[in-house]
Amino acid sequence: MISPRRAPGWWRRLDVTVRDLPLGLLLLAGSFLPPLYGKGTQVGDVPTRPFDALTIAVLGLECLPLAGRRRWPAISLALVCLGFAVDQLRGYHSVAGSALPLALISTGAHLERHRRATALVGSAAYVPLAVALYRLGSGGETASGFVTFYLALVLAWGIGAWLRSTRAAEAERRRRVAEDTRTAERTRIARELHDVVTHHVTAMVVQAEAARYLTAAPDRLDQTLTAVTDTGRRAISDLRHLLDLLNPDHGTDTGGGRTPPAGRLLTLVEQTRRAGQPVEFTEEGTPAPSAGSADLVAYRVVQEALTNALKYAHGSRTSVRVRHGGKEITVEVGTDGSGPATASPGGSGRGLAGLRERVAVLGGEFSAGRADDGRFVVRARIPAGSPA
Q1: Of residues 72, 65, 54, the one with CA closest to residue 27
Q2: Between 99-110 and 143-211, two packed helices, what is the crossing angle to 10 degrees?
Q3: pTM of the full predicted structure?
């Protein structure tokens, strides 16, 4: 049995047609309730007739296609319209008639192609239906009644179209914000790298050029080469400092150093356990001596994932797997989605975006998101041997 706490994630993993089916079933069942008999939509004044052997097929055709209103909106709308037409012509006037405006809203919101043609065909099909209903009725319905109902259908379509345009505008806004953020960050990184690197590299080039002419003066040559070495070390130090400043976790490092020493991952896991997070830790292989920046990035991936797990899924089981290979380090951190927090264990996304950039700089791969079993999983493949 699925607990209420896990139900939302379980429900979202179902196919969209399965999630849309209950609404159609609800309308179909409601149409057969005695208190609601004859209380549905009525176009024209065709007399209401009792349900007969054809009723179940007609109402099923009218309601069940709502299961495909998002995946196959045009087909869903066509079937619902056909069922609605037979419903009105037979005089059932059931609650199932409410499926038509729902199908129109969904089609307006989710149909991507041939939207104008679909609207024109639907409008044209309404004319013979209205004529047939007028002739089958007693003549009490005026043309204004049919026009009013048509305008109500147009309104339902317009609501769906508005939802579609709003969703598209929001997606475009988020894309632009993300692109602008990436562009600004890259510009800032380029500016900082230029400021830090240019001075030191220029000095090293000048000193190295001068050393070419000092082969006859060993003392001066030694001094010049020592200056080149010192300048290179200062450049490395400044670059490391710059990377720390650009790191999303800058200021939260509890290690006191830029590169985490051996065993720091286990220390980080123990700290997380003491904070109340059950963590399973597995580390395979031996860290390569020349792993360089890969070790630091792997540590940051684990640190960010555990921090988010503590914040947004406190108390949920978390697993950490780190494998040191000859050419790469792979990291996988998975957190159950059954914790008391309602937010995603992925957090706000800013820290993960920073990790994605850092992994990409080393030529690796990074992903973070919900797995099929509902867990939030952070994975990284980091090539080893990058310079520190």
Answers
A1: 65
A2: 30
A3: 0.50
Task: State the pLDDT at residue 254.
Answer: 44
Residue 377, helix vs strand vs coil: strand
Residue 308's DSSP bridge partners are none
Higher pLDDT: 347 or 78? It is 78
Higher pLDDT pick, 202 / 321: 321
Instruction: Return the DSSP state at 46.
Output: P
Residue 286 in contact with residue 324, Cβ under 8 Å? yes
| Mean pLDDT, rounded, of the chain | 79
CA distances to 35, 55, 209, 272 from 31, in Å: 9, 10, 91, 55
> What's the mean pLDDT in 93-114?
90
**Is 318:278 a contact under the CB 8 Å cutoff?**
yes
What mean pLDDT do residues 122-142 have? 83
Cβ atoms of residues 100 and 84 within 8 Å? yes
The burial class, CB within 10 Å (0-12 / 13-18 / 19+), for 283 is middle
CA distance 135 to 60: 26
CA distance 383 to 329: 6
